[in-house]
Design goal:
The structure holds three protein chains of three kinds. Chain A has a single domain, classed as P-loop containing nucleotide triphosphate hydrolases (Rossmann fold), CATH 3.40.50. Helix content of chain A is about 35%, strand content about 30%. Chain A contains seven helices and ten strands. Chain A has a six-stranded mixed beta sheet with strand order 6-7-8-3-9-10, sandwiched between helices. The longest helix of chain A is centred in the last third of the chain and has 17 residues. Chain B has one domain: AttH-like fold. In chain B, strands 1, 2, 3, 4, 5, 6, 7, 8, 9, 10, 11, 12 and 13 form a 13-stranded antiparallel beta sheet that branches. In chain B, strands 14, 15, 16, 17, 18, 21, 22, 23, 24 and 25 form a ten-stranded antiparallel beta sheet that branches. A two-stranded antiparallel sheet of chain B has the order 19-20. In chain B, a hairpin with a 2-residue loop joins strand 12 and strand 13. The N terminus of chain B is likely disordered. By secondary structure, chain C is an alpha+beta fold. Chain C folds into four domains: about 190 residues, no CATH class; about 180 residues, no CATH class; about 260 residues, no CATH class; about 170 residues, no CATH class. Helices cover about 55% and strands about 15% of the residues of chain C. In chain C, a hairpin with a 5-residue loop joins strand 3 and strand 4. In chain C, helix 13 crosses helix 15. Chain C starts with a helix and ends with a helix. Classes of the chains: A alpha/beta, B mainly beta, C alpha+beta. Chains in contact: A-C, B-C.
Chain lengths: ~220, ~350, ~850
C-alpha cells in the first residue's frame, strides 16, 4: 500500500472571484523509502499538491489517501493528530522560531503533541543531520545550510512516515542545496520514509528516486530511476 | 394740607389696614412741643415735609424737598423682633437746580428695623437711613444724600408752629375724625451747603415744614389736588389747597391758612380764596400728564392777588410702579400785589392727579 | 494632492484594513480625553457653582460685611445712618429643604421693604433692564405675613402654591407669593423677608451678611476703611465675593488632585498610541523603504506617521467629547457630594460644553497622540531606502538599552525619593507630584529589564507548568521586548495608580474607622434632618435638649454647637462641646492628640477659658502648634484663644476649632445647639430610651443615630466621597485593558507566519488559542507585578507627601488587602479576557496563506 495516494485529484481555487484550477485529475502514489521530486514552473501546482499531501488542504474532487486514510474524511482533531504522527514539513525559508534554541525548535512538534522527555530524541535527530553540539544555539547563530538541517531534524523528530519539503533549497546556494538534498535522500532511504520534494532545480530533481514533472496542474511526465 | 397721601395709598391699598386700632384726629387735641414734632404711633399715617427756596452766594437758585412718611402697618403686640414691620417708612428727596435747569429726585422705603428709620423724640431725630432731621435746640439740621447730590442745611424757625384748620383739626371731609392734625413751620431761615456734580454751593434761603398725622383717608370722589405754600416778602405766609372732585368741581373742604408777620394765623375757607390755573401747561414726557404750572391766586379779604410761576417746569416726581401716583412738586416764584403795593415771594407748588385720577379707595 | 494620496495609501488604508485595532486605539484616546474633559467640566460645574448658592440675589455689590457667628443687626442701623450714598442689603443666609423632595435650597432672608423699593427704582432708572439680583416684586404686600416666600422660576412653583419647608428641625408651610426669573438654576433660592427668616431660623439679633454698594469715588479701599471704622472690631468688611474666592482657594487642592488623577488615563492612552504607531512603523518598514526609494523625504515619512497619530487624536477627541460630556454628568454628582460633605454647600451648576472645552479636548487628543507618536515616527523616517529590498527579519531589533535604562531608572527613583522629602510649594505638593512622575518614568525605564529577567527565569518553569504554549508565549514576549515593555508599562501604570490610590484611600478609611472608635463617646446622637454639609450647621430647637435630659435613663445631654467661620481668609468650623457634662459622665476617651498627652489632661484646660483645641488640618494649614495663640473675630469682638493642643480629625478637610460651650456663649450667645450627644445610663435599656427620645422629639425633624449607626453613616459618606477616585482608576484600567486587546490583535497579525507554522508542526487550534491567552495572561502578570511594586512606592508618596501637603491629614499606612486582591484579580481577568478575540482570530488564520511565500 502506498504511503501517499492521490486518486484523480482536482483542486480549484477562487482567486479574486475567478475560479482557478490548480490541479486537474491528477493521480500519484508514493511508497516508503521513495523520494519523489515535483518539478515544474512556478504555479504549476507543486505547492498545492504538497498541501493536499500534508492534509493542510483538501481536494475539490478525487481523494488523497495518507497511510490508507482519506484526508477529506477526517475531523480537525484527527487531522491534527495525523500531522503530529505521520507528516513532517520542510520549508524554503526554514521557518525556525528565532526565539527558540535549535533543540527547542527541533523538539517543538513533540512538545506540541504533549510529549515530555524529548531531548534524547532531539539529540538523535540532530546527529542524523550532523548538527551534534549545536542544539543550544539560536537559529540566527547558524548558517543557512545548518538552519535547513535543523528544520529537517524538526521534520523527522516525531518519526513521520512522510516528509513534505517545499523548495528546501530555494534559499541556499547550489552546493549547500545539493548537500541538503543528498541528506534528505539518505534519510529517506535509511529511515524508510516517503519524501516529496517540490523544487525548481532539475539538478536537484536528478537525485530523486522519482521525478514528477507538473505542467498547468497536470502530470506531464513521471520518471523513475 | 401737605398731601403726600397719594404715595401712601399704594401701601394702604395693599395692606388693608384695620383702622379701628388707630386714633383719629378730633377737635380739641392739645398740642405740645417739642413732643408733637415727633412720632405719633397712635395715628396710622404721619409725615414730615420740608421744602425750600435757596440761593448760593453767587446767586445760583435751588429748590429742595425732603419728606419722611410713616405708615402704620401693624400693631400686633407679638411683633417684638427688630425686623418686624410695624410701620413702613418712605422718604422722598429732590433737588431742583433752578438755574441749571435740572431736577433730581429719589425715594426710599424702609422699616424701622435696627435703627434704619424712625422719628424719635428722645433722639430728637427723624430719619430714613442717611436722610435725616436732627433737632438741635430750636434748630433743625437737614441731611439729604444721594449719589448725584447732597445737602446739609440748618433751619431756624422765625415763627412758632402754626396749627392749621379749626380747633386743632384740618377737616378733610364731612364727619368727625375725617381730619388730620396739621402743623407747619412756615418760615425757616435756612443756611447750609449743597454739593452737586462735584461742586459745593454755600446757600441760604427760606424753608417750610409741614407735619401732619391722622388716620382718616380721602374720599373716593376726590381725584387730585393742588397745593401751594407761599412765603411773601412782607414776612407773611400762605398755605392754600384745592381738592379736585371727579366732576371737575372744587371740594368744599378745600382750605388755607394765612400767617401774619407776627406769626398769628388765620384759617381760610374754600370761599375765602380763588386758585386759578392759567392756560400755560407743561406736559410731562414721562407720564404725559399736562400740569398747569402757572397759577393765579386771589384772596380778596386780604387784598392779595398773586401770580405763581416756576423757573423750572420739569419738577415732576415720577412713581416707580404703575400703581404709585406721579406728582409735580416744585419751587415757584411769586409776583403780584397786596393792596396795590407790589409784592413778591417764593414758594412751593404741588399738583397731583393730572396724568390719571389718584386712586384713593380700593 | 499627491502627498495626500500617498498618506491615504500608506497610512489610512492599512488602518482601514484593521478596523478593530484602529478602533481600539481611537477608543483608548477617546476615553483618555473623555475622562480629562469630564473631570474638567464636572469640577467647574460642581465646585465652580458653590458660590452661587449663597450669592443668589446678591446683585452687584462692592463690599460685604461678615462676622463669625453673624453680624450684630445693629450694624445695619449704624451703616444706614452713615452720611454716604451707599446701598445696604442685610441678609440672613441659610438653607431650607423642600420637605417633600428633600432638595436643599439656599434660604435667603432679605429686607424686602427696602429691597422692594430699591428694585423698583433700579427698574425705572435703567429702563427696565433687570439684573438677576432683583428683589421680588410686590413684596411689600406680604410684609407682615411670615409665611410668604418668593422662589426662583426654576423651582417650578406658581404663585399661590403651598410649599412645606424643613428649616433646622422644624417643618412649616409657606405660600409662594412671587416667582423671580432665575435663568440659571444656580441662582435658585427661597427668599423670605428678613423678619420671617429670623423667625424661621430662631436667629434673632444677627444677620449673616450685609452687602454694600458704594460710590466709585474715591476707591474701594477707602470705602472699606471708612465702613470698617464705623463697625465693631469683630466685624469684617471685605470686597464682595471674597467668600467665594476663599471657597475656591479651599477647593483648589481638591480640584487639582482630581484633575491630576484624571490625567492617568491619558498617560495610559499615550503608551497605547506609542505602541500602535510603533507597530505601524515596524510593519510597514518595507513599504517605507519603497516609498523612500521612490523619492519620499524623511520629512514626508515623519509627517505621515505623526499625521496618522494625529488622526487617532482627532478621532479620539471627537468621540471623547460627547463621551466626556456624558461622564461629566455622573462625575458632577460624585464631586458635588464630596464637596458638600468635606467643604462647602454646593449645588452643581449646569455642565457647560463650550468652544473652550472642544478645543481642550482636541488639543489633549491630538497633543498626546502626536507627542507619543513622535519617537516611533522618527524611527520610521530613519528607515533607509535599501530596506525596501531587504526581505530580512520582520521584527527588527529596536535598540533597547536595557542596562543603561535600568541605571537611569535607579537614578530617577533616587531623585524621586529626594523630591518626596521636599516641602509643599504654595500649599501645593508640587515636589510630591514630581516624585510621582519620576517614579513612573523610572518604572517605565526599568520595565524592559524587568520583563527580560522575569521571562528568562520563568519560561522554562512556565513551560513545565503550562506546557509548551507557555514557553512559546514567554519567549515571544521576551523577543518583542519593546512592544511588551510598552504594554506592561501602560497597564502597570494604571494598576500602580489604582493600587496606590487604593492603599491611600484604604489607609485613610482605616484611620477614620480607628479615629471614630475613639471620638464618639455618647450612646445616641441627634441632629436636625436634612443633608449634612461641611459648612451648614442647622440647629435643634432649644427646648428639646432640656426635654430629653428629663427622660429616665438619660444621664446627660451634651449640647454641641458649630458655626461656619473664616480664619485667615480660609473657611473653617468653630465648634463647642459642653464640657460641663464631664462632671456627669466620665467619658474621657482615647482621643488622640499630636502631643500624645491624654485627653483627661487637655480637656479640663478648656473649661470656661479662652483655650481651644484645633484639628490637625487646621493646624497644618495655618502653621500652628500647641501653645500658639490665635485671634478670632466672633460676633462683634476679637477673641484671643490659646491652642492647648492639636487633635487628629478626619471629619472635614476645612479644619476645626473646638472650645467649651461656656466660652462660646460669651461671644456668641445663641444657645441653640447644632447637635446633641445623649449619654444613656448603663443600667437602662438603650432601645427603650431611644423610643422615649423619639417620642419626645416628635414634631421636630431630627435624625437620631446610635453610636454604631453614626459610624456606619460616616463611613458611608466617606465611601461616597471617594467613589470618584475609584471611577477614575477604573477608566484608566479599562483604557489599559483595551490597549492590551489591541496590542494582542497586532501581535496575532504580525505573528501569523509563526502561528501557521505551529499548525504545520502539529499544533491544534486549541493550542493556538491557549498560546495567545497565555501571552495575555503573562502580560497581565508582568503588569500586575510591576504595577504593584510601583503602586506600593507611589502610595507612600500619596499618603505621606501629597495627602499631607494638600490636606494636612496624618494617615496611618494600611494595606486594604481584600480590595487590592479583588481589584487586581478583576484587572487580571480583564486582561486575559482581552486576549479572547485576538485568540479567536489566531485560530481562524489560514496557515497556508501565511507560510507559503511565493
Amino acid at each position: 500500500m502506498p504511503i501517499l495516494a492521490l486518486q484523480d485529484v482536482s483542486k480549484d481555487y477562487l482567486s479574486d472571484g475567478q475560479r482557478v484550477q490548480a490541479l486537474h485529475g491528477l493521480s500519484l502514489n508514493v511508497e516508503r523509502g521513495e523520494m519523489v521530486a515535483l518539478v515544474g514552473r512556478s504555479g504549476c501546482g507543486k505547492s498545492t499538491l504538497l498541501n493536499l499531501a500534508g492534509a493542510m488542504d483538501f481536494p475539490t474532487t478525487g481523494s488523497v489517501l495518507l497511510d490508507g486514510v482519506s484526508t477529506s474524511s477526517l475531523k480537525d482533531e484527527e487531522l491534527t493528530r495525523l500531522r503530529r504522527e505521520k507528516v513532517g514539513f520542510i520549508f524554503q525559508s526554514f521557518q525556525l522560531l528565532h526565539t527558540l534554541t535549535v533543540f527547542e525548535n527541533v523538539e517543538l512538534p513533540l512538545l506540541l503533541a504533549g510529549k515530555t522527555n524529548v531531548r534524547e530524541a532531539a539529540c538523535e535527530r540532530l546527529a542524523w543531520v550532523e548538527l551534534e553540539g549545536l542544539g543550544e544555539r539560536y537559529p540566527h547563530q547558524l548558517s543557512g545550510g545548518q538552519m535547513q538541517r535543523a528544520a529537517i531534524a524538526r521534520a523527522l523528530i516525531h518519526s513521520p512516515i512522510i516528509v513534505l519539503a517545499d523548495e528546501p533549497t530555494g534559499n541556499l546556494d547550489t552546493t549547500t542545496g545539493n548537500v541538503i538534498l543528498e541528506l534528505l535522500l539518505r534519510l529517506t532511504h535509511e529511515k524508510n520514509i516517503a519524501t516529496v520534494v517540490a523544487t525548481h532545480s532539475l539538478e536537484a530533481a536528478a537525485l530523486a528516486d522519482t521525478v514528477v514533472r507538473l505542467r498547468d496542474g497536470r502530470i506531464e511526465e513521471i520518471t523513475r530511476r | 394740607m401737605r398731601n403726600k397721601l397719594a404715595w401712601l395709598t399704594v401701601v394702604l391699598f395693599l395692606l388693608q389696614p384695620a383702622q379701628a386700632q388707630y386714633r383719629t384726629a378730633l377737635p380739641g387735641y392739645r398740642y405740645e412741643f417739642p413732643r408733637d414734632h415727633f412720632s405719633h404711633p397712635d395715628f396710622q399715617t404721619e409725615w414730615w415735609y420740608y421744602t425750600g427756596n435757596l440761593k448760593s452766594s453767587d446767586g445760583h437758585r435751588f429748590g429742595f424737598e425732603l419728606t419722611f412718611f410713616r405708615q402704620a402697618v401693624s400693631r400686633d403686640p407679638a411683633n417684638t423682633a427688630a425686623w418686624d414691620v410695624n410701620d413702613v417708612y418712605l422718604a422722598h428727596l429732590a433737588l431742583s437746580d433752578l438755574d441749571g435747569a435740572k431736577f433730581y429726585h429719589t425715594e426710599r422705603t424702609n422699616r424701622a428695623g435696627p435703627g434704619i428709620a424712625g422719628a424719635s423724640e428722645a433722639l430728637g431725630r427723624i430719619w430714613n437711613g442717611s436722610w435725616q432731621i436732627q433737632w438741635e435746640g430750636e434748630d433743625q439740621n437737614l441731611q439729604g444724600i444721594d449719589e448725584r447730590f447732597q445737602f446739609r442745611l440748618k433751619l431756624h424757625s422765625e415763627k412758632p408752629p402754626v396749627i392749621h384748620g379749626e380747633n386743632g383739626v384740618s377737616q378733610k371731609a364731612e364727619g368727625p375724625g375725617r381730619a388730620s392734625h396739621y402743623i407747619s413751620l412756615t418760615r425757616l431761615a435756612t443756611t447750609g451747603s449743597i454739593e452737586l456734580a462735584g461742586k459745593r454751593f454755600e446757600v441760604s434761603g427760606t424753608s417750610w415744614m409741614d407735619h401732619e398725622f391722622f388716620t382718616h383717608q380721602l374720599e373716593s370722589d376726590q381725584t387730585g389736588w393742588d397745593w401751594l405754600s407761599l412765603q411773601l416778602a412782607d414776612h407773611t405766609e400762605l398755605m392754600l389747597f384745592h381738592i379736585r372732585r371727579g366732576d371737575a368741581s372744587i371740594d368744599r373742604y378745600s382750605a388755607g391758612t394765612y400767617v401774619d408777620a407776627q406769626g398769628k394765623s388765620i384759617h381760610l375757607r374754600a370761599g375765602d380764596f380763588t386758585l386759578q390755573p392759567a392756560s400755560e401747561k407743561w406736559t410731562s414726557p414721562v407720564t404725559h400728564g399736562a400740569y398747569p404750572v402757572h397759577w393765579i391766586v386771589a384772596i380778596p379779604k386780604l387784598g392779595i392777588s398773586l401770580e405763581a410761576k416756576t423757573p423750572l417746569e420739569s419738577q415732576e416726581l415720577t412713581g416707580k410702579t404703575k400703581i404709585a401716583p406721579n406728582y409735580w412738586e416744585g419751587a415757584i416764584v411769586l409776583t403780584g400785589k397786596r393792596d396795590a403795593k407790589p409784592l413778591e415771594g417764593v414758594g412751593y407748588l404741588e399738583m397731583t392727579g393730572y396724568d390719571r385720577a389718584v386712586q384713593l379707595a380700593h | 494632492m499627491p502627498r495626500l494620496l500617498l498618506f491615504y495609501q500608506l497610512m489610512v488604508r492599512p488602518l482601514l484594513r484593521e478596523p478593530i485595532r484602529a478602533g481600539l486605539t481611537v477608543l483608548a484616546v477617546a476615553l483618555g480625553v473623555a475622562v480629562v474633559l469630564a473631570i474638567d467640566l464636572a469640577s467647574v460645574a460642581a465646585t465652580g457653582s458653590f458660590h452661587s448658592s449663597m450669592e443668589a440675589l446678591a446683585g452687584d455689590n462692592d463690599l460685604e460685611i461678615t462676622a463669625s457667628g453673624g453680624v450684630p443687626e445693629g450694624a445695619v442701623g449704624t451703616l444706614a445712618a452713615l452720611p454716604y450714598a451707599i446701598r445696604i442689603s442685610p441678609r440672613i443666609e441659610d438653607y431650607a429643604l423642600l420637605a417633600d423632595t428633600k432638595q436643599s435650597f439656599p434660604l435667603v432672608g432679605l429686607d424686602l421693604v427696602s429691597e422692594g423699593s430699591a428694585y423698583e427704582q433700579d427698574k425705572a432708572g435703567s429702563g427696565g433692564e433687570l439684573s438677576s439680583a432683583e428683589a421680588p416684586k410686590d413684596s411689600i404686600e406680604y410684609l407682615e405675613d411670615h409665611e410668604s416666600i418668593w422662589v426662583g422660576s426654576s423651582l417650578g412653583r406658581k404663585v399661590g402654591d403651598r410649599v412645606r419647608l424643613l428649616i433646622n428641625d422644624r417643618v412649616r408651610e409657606y405660600v409662594v407669593r412671587g416667582v423671580y426669573p432665575d435663568s440659571n438654576g444656580n441662582e435658585s433660592a427661597i427668599v423670605m423677608d428678613i423678619a420671617a427668616a429670623q423667625q424661621a431660623l430662631t436667629r434673632y439679633g444677627r444677620v449673616d451678611r450685609i452687602l454694600l454698594k458704594v460710590p466709585q469715588e474715591p476707591n474701594l479701599d477707602e470705602w472699606q476703611r471708612r465702613i470698617s471704622a464705623a463697625l465693631p472690631a469683630g466685624v469684617e468688611v471685605r470686597p464682595q465675593g471674597t467668600g467665594t474666592n476663599e471657597n475656591r482657594r479651599m477647593l483648589a487642592a481638591f480640584r487639582w488632585n482630581l484633575r491630576l488623577l484624571s490625567y492617568i488615563s491619558l498617560v495610559v492612552g499615550a503608551f497605547l498610541i506609542y505602541n500602535t504607531i510603533s507597530v505601524s512603523v515596524v510593519r510597514r518598514r518595507p513599504e517605507i523603504g519603497i516609498v523612500r526609494a521612490l523619492g519620499a523625504s524623511r520629512r514626508v515619512i515623519l509627517g505621515a506617521f505623526v499625521g496618522e497619530a494625529a488622526c487617532f487624536g482627532v478621532a479620539g477627541a471627537l468621540i471623547g467629547l460627547p463621551l466626556g460630556r456624558l461622564m461629566a454628568t455622573g462625575a458632577v454628582k460624585l464631586m458635588a457630594s464630596t464637596v458638600e460633605s468635606l467643604y462647602v454647600s454646593s449645588r452643581p451648576g449646569a455642565i457647560e460644553l463650550n468652544g473652550a472645552s472642544v478645543l481642550l479636548a482636541l488639543a489633549i487628543g491630538v497633543g498626546v497622540a502626536v507627542a507619543s507618536a513622535y519617537s516611533p515616527a522618527r524611527e520610521a523616517s530613519l528607515v533607509s531606502p535599501v530596506e525596501a529590498m531587504a526581505r530580512g527579519r520582520r521584527e527588527y531589533d529596536v535598540s533597547i538599552h536595557k542596562v543603561r535604562d535600568l541605571w537611569l531608572a535607579i537614578m530617577l527613583a533616587i531623585a524621586a525619593a529626594a523630591a518626596s522629602r521636599a516641602p509643599a510649594v504654595a500649599g501645593k505638593p508640587l515636589f510630591g507630584y514630581l516624585a510621582t512622575i519620576l517614579l513612573m518614568v523610572a518604572s517605565a525605564l526599568a520595565i524592559p529589564a524587568f520583563v527580560s529577567v522575569i521571562t528568562a527565569f520563568t519560561s522554562k518553569l512556565l513551560g513545565k507548568l503550562f506546557g509548551v504554549e507557555a514557553m512559546l508565549a514567554s519567549r515571544s514576549l521576551a523577543a518583542s521586548l519593546q512592544r511588551t515593555s510598552v504594554l506592561v508599562g501602560a497597564l502597570s501604570t494604571a494598576i500602580a495608580m489604582m493600587t496606590a490610590v487604593g492603599i491611600m484611600v484604604g489607609s485613610f478609611r482605616q484611620s477614620v474607622v480607628l479615629w471614630m472608635s475613639n471620638e464618639l463617646p455618647a450612646d445616641l446622637y441627634l441632629r436636625p434632618a436634612g443633608s449634612p454639609a461641611a459648612d451648614r450647621h442647622p440647629t435643634v430647637s432649644l427646648g428639646l435638649a432640656e426635654g430629653l435630659a428629663k427622660i429616665p435613663g438619660v444621664v446627660a445631654v451634651e449640647r454641641l454647637r458649630a458655626y461656619e467661620i473664616r480664619f485667615q481668609e480660609m473657611p473653617t468650623t468653630l465648634a463647642s462641646a459642653d464640657l460641663d457634662v464631664l462632671d456627669v459622665v466620665r467619658w474621657y476617651q482615647n482621643s488622640e492628640f499630636l502631643s500624645g498627652r491624654p485627653e483627661r489632661q487637655i480637656l479640663p484646660e478648656l473649661r470656661h477659658s479662652n483655650t481651644v483645641i484645633v484639628s490637625e488640618p487646621f493646624a497644618y494649614k495655618h502653621h500652628l502648634k500647641a501653645g500658639d495663640t490665635i485671634t478670632l473675630s466672633l460676633g462683634e469682638t476679637q477673641a484671643s484663644l490659646r491652642i492647648a493642643d492639636v487633635f487628629y480629625d478626619y471629619s472635614s478637610e476645612r479644619g476645626s476649632i473646638l472650645m467649651d460651650r461656656q466660652t462660646m456663649l460669651r461671644y456668641l450667645p445663641d444657645p441653640a445647639p447644632s447637635n446633641l450627644a445623649i449619654y444613656v445610663s448603663p443600667d437602662a435599656r438603650l432601645e427603650t430610651v431611644r423610643t422615649e427620645i423619639e417620642k419626645a422629639a416628635a414634631g421636630h425633624r431630627v435624625l437620631l443615630f446610635s453610636n454604631r449607626e453614626l459610624r456606619s453613616e460616616a463611613i458611608r459618606i466617606f465611601d461616597r466621597t471617594f467613589a470618584i477616585t475609584y471611577a477614575l482608576e477604573a477608566v484608566a484600567v479599562i483604557v489599559a485593558v483595551m490597549g492590551i486587546a489591541g496590542a494582542l490583535l497586532a501581535l496575532v497579525i504580525d505573528r501569523r507566519r509563526e502561528l501557521s507554522l505551529l499548525r504545520f508542526l502539529g499544533a491544534a487550534t486549541g493550542q493556538i488559542r491557549k498560546l495567545i491567552l497565555l501571552e495575555a495572561g503573562l502580560l497581565g502578570l508582568l503588569a500586575n507585578l510591576a504595577g504593584l511594586a510601583l503602586g506600593f512606592a507611589l502610595s507612600f508618596i500619596l499618603v505621606y507627601v501629597i495627602n499631607k501637603q494638600s490636606f494636612g491629614w496624618t494617615i496611618r499606612f494600611h494595606w486594604p488587602v481584600e480590595i487590592l486582591v479583588a481589584a487586581l484579580t478583576v484587572v487580571y481577568a480583564a486582561t486575559v479576557l482581552a486576549g479572547l478575540y485576538p485568540a479567536q482570530m489566531a485560530v481562524r488564520l489560514n496557515p497556508l496563506e501565511a507560510v507559503h511565500e511565493e
